[in-house]
Inverse folding.
């Protein structure tokens, strides 16, 4: 087992830019532990590419660094806004039932991309730090949402350690992991 890291300096977050495209491509497409659970569909990559070139659709992409070294990616979006828009269009999805009706809920996708940083205790701390970071600039945040695949037991454990609780289970209906069961996990701010 790999030794836990002592978090003696802050984990920092910066919005990804076009300069991060090569790094993010390597993380997303070349790391087996990422490819196994992440959406690599053309639509997802177009969303990422567009964001890195100044056109935001749904997500903000954040690079997490520890001691100045990029090691993780967090994607964030307003789940409240997305649920409201899609429901108004008649596109309600099965996981919407797990989203609290009050307050702003921010959704995450999260990866520790650099293998040297896996199994070191950084995932819960990174998520906690990111939630504190977002809450400090957006005090209206009511809670956070993340939806790992049920089979991704390491992620489920890390998210639980970061304070997320399982609200329910649903089957994804889009992306490269369509038909895979996922947990809907919530943490209140």
């Amino acid at each position: 087992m790999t030794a836990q890291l002592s978090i003696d300096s802050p984990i920092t977050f910066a919005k990804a830019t076009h300069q991060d495209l090569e790094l993010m491509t390597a993380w997303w497409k070349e790391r087996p532990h990422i490819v196994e659970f992440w959406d690599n569909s053309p639509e997802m990559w177009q969303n990422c590419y567009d964001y890195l070139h100044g056109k935001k659709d749904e997500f903000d992409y954040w690079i997490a660094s520890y001691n100045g070294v990029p090691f993780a990616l967090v994607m964030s979006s307003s789940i409240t806004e997305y649920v409201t828009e899609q429901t108004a269009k008649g596109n309600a999805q099965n996981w919407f039932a797990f989203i609290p009706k009050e307050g702003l809920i921010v959704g995450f996708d999260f990866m520790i991309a650099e293998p040297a940083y896996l199994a070191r205790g950084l995932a819960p701390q990174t998520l906690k730090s990111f939630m504190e970071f977002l809450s400090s600039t957006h005090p209206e945040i009511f809670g956070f949402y993340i939806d790992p695949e049920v089979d991704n037991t390491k992620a489920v454990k890390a998210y639980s350690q970061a304070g997320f609780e399982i609200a329910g289970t649903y089957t994804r209906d889009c992306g490269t992991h369509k038909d895979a069961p996922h947990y809907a996990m919530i943490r209140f701010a």
Remarks:
- Residues 17 and 52 are 5 Å apart (CA to CA).
- Residues 122-137 form the longest helix (16 residues).
- The chain is about 30% helix and 30% strand.
- The chain has one domain: 11-188.
